[in-house]
Amino acid sequence: MPIGNVIEKETVPDYHIVPAFVDKSDYWQNELQYAARLGNEFKGKTMITFETTQGPKTIITTVWSVTEDYLQIKGGYNIPIRSIIDIHY
Fold first, then answer.
1. Which residue from 53, 52, 84, 54 is spatially nearest to 66, judged by alpha carbons?
2. Rg of the Cα trace of the chain?
3. Fewer CB within 10 Å, N- or C-terminus of the chain?
4. Average pLDDT value for the chain
5. pLDDT tens digits for 1-33?
6. 26 phi and psi, to 5 degrees?
7. Distances in Å between the alpha carbon of 70 and those of 1, 10, 84?
8. Is 55 left (phi over 0), alpha (psi -120 to 50) or beta?
9. What domain count does the chain have?
């Protein structure tokens, strides 16, 4: 069940993304590597909840790539890993 309002991935740039109250970047790295493999090899989608100035927002999308600080989703949008609150496959 999503924590925040579910939004379309195309609207991500419309929100000001801020760091989550608890930075779990190290933990999310492993989860996001799996999500990227799921997306690239099996076209599987991941539910990602992140913090914005308007409260938590959730998207359901394919994770394309993951760097040390960001995850990239379809459409070329980047989300800071330190802003992630929750991930579900």
1. 84
2. 12
3. N
4. 94
5. 677 799 999 999 999 999 999 999 999 999 999
6. -60, -45
7. 24, 17, 10
8. left
9. 1
DSSP sequence for 7-68: --GGGGGGS-B---SS--HHHHHHHHHHHHHHHHHH---EEEEE-BTTS-EEEEE-EEEE-S
Rounded Cα gap, residues 26 and 74, in angstroms: 23
pLDDT (mean) for 46-68: 96
The model's pTM is 0.93
CB 77 within 8 A of CB 12: yes
First to last CA, the chain: 11
Joined together, the tokens standing for residue 39 give 């997306």
CATH classification of the domain holding 12: 2.30.30
Domain hosting 53: range is: 5-88
How far apart are the C-alpha atoms of 24 and 82, rounded to whole Å?
7
At 44, the amino acid letter reads G
